[in-house]
Amino acid sequence: MKTANHTEVREFIFQGFSSFQEHQLTLFVVFLTLYILTLAGNVIIATIIHIDHHLHTPMYFFLSVLSTSETFYSLVIIPRMLSSLVGLSQSISLEGCGTQLFFFLGFAITNCLLLAVMGYDRYVAICNPLRYLIIMKWRVCAMLASSVCATGFSLSLVQAVAIFRLPFLRKNHTLVSEFTFQGFSSFHEHQLPLFIMFSTLYILTLAGNTIIVTIISFDRHLHTPMYFFLSTLSASETVYTLVIIPKMLDNLIGPSRPISLAGCATQMFFFITLAINNCFLLTAMGYDRYVAICHPLRYSVIMNKRVCIQLLGGACSIGLIVAMTQVSAVFRLPFCTTKVAHFFCDIRPVMKLSCIDTTVNEILTLIISVLVILVPMGLVFTSYILIISTILKIASAEGRKKAFATCTSHLTVVIVHYGCASIAYLKPKSENTKDQDQLISVTYTIITPLLNPVVYTLRNKEVKDALLRAIGKKLS
């Protein structure tokens, strides 16, 4: 740890073009002229497109939205820059700076995404001209424009909040460069039995998931969407445990070794990425079961290879984006203490070490938890309501039994996985003790990854048959 003094900051001052002191009037005239032309041009474009019904097409709709966005984008920055060029106040309050940053980022990201949407519009117009009016109907255009704006300002809000959580107003606090895990220190006399038990479970988890991935890779009978998602989930669970458990086991058999700030951030990043990835992979598996049972004749068409890869890519992308957002928000906080009341760098235990109020971070964590736990859980259970209603319509008892058998393994994993995640991240932060929190964490970091191979191996006839075929080939 090292101590640093910080001056209390209430406003910022722009240096601007201070190095061009003798040319500031010239710069003012040039920039003012360009600014007036920009405003006039964008206002004219937006007005003409609005008035002339010949221009009421998707292409010009997006152009008018872009012109409007560019107008506000320039209003956020240029007037203040011009005023500083002619000698007016160059200071800006902390709140004013945060507001300017928020709108600047919001409109900048919106403009980037609007240009991407306009590119898609041109692609449809040129490559699919006969279907252009069907694909780019007004509802689609409105949804694209609103989604672009929502994405731009959501990312802007996250970035602005993360930056302005920095300790601009802090004085004389201690900067922490490493953390120490308290781990299972309250179970000191039982640490060796815990080490043996967790090591055994960890070895079984690694072995089970590795066997599943290997069997699915080599047995062509299992080259189906269902087993593609299962092998991906097993691989993700394997890496997920590697991120957390070795360090935990190391701390159980000796004095707790410190972890650097960068190491803690890296562990949290991979933990969040893989945990969210697993949540959405389970959702994709639920969708796969829904299509297989409710639309069996169209299954191979709907769940083609490209769709499977897109679902996997979507799950991974969401995990990466959320992890980057969450880790950036947490590790911009100033930390004053070093002892993490946990056995790995989880979000809430690390935030508790901060010198400042973490209410904004708690709200961000809750919002993210709702989106990545309740939303996919809701989708999975909705798919199972539709699946069960379809199964009940099957005439033969044997047919109903077979249909239920294809879902029970997945449903078992889903209930345990989402149940543990909901208890860990959606409960009030002061509800459980440290030991209870760690018990819940042990469940979703050790038990759940082991549950996946156990359930899918013992309850799945196809996997058991593939395993027997592999053993038979090896023996022969």
UniProtKB/TrEMBL annotation:
Entry-linked InterPro entries: GPCR_Rhodpsn, GPCR_Rhodpsn_7TM, Olfact_rcpt
Membrane topology: Multi-pass membrane protein
Keyword Membrane (UniProt): yes
Main localization category: membrane
Entry's Gene Ontology molecular function annotations: G protein-coupled receptor activity; olfactory receptor activity
Alphabetical UniProt keywords: Cell membrane, G-protein coupled receptor, Membrane, Olfaction, Receptor, Sensory transduction, Transducer, Transmembrane, Transmembrane helix
Top-rank lineage group of the source organism: Eukaryota
GO terms for cellular component: plasma membrane
TM helices/strands, residue ranges: 25-48, 60-81, 101-120, 140-164, 194-215, 227-245, 265-287, 307-331, 363-392, 404-426, 438-458
Xref: SUPFAM superfamilies: Family A G protein-coupled receptor-like
Domain G-protein coupled receptors family 1 profile residues, every copy: 41-157, 208-456
Cellular localisation: Cell membrane
Biological role stated in the UniProt entry: Putative odorant or sperm cell receptor.
Name of the protein in question: Olfactory receptor 10J1
The species this protein was found in: Camelus ferus (Wild bactrian camel)
Protein encoded by which gene: LOC102503722
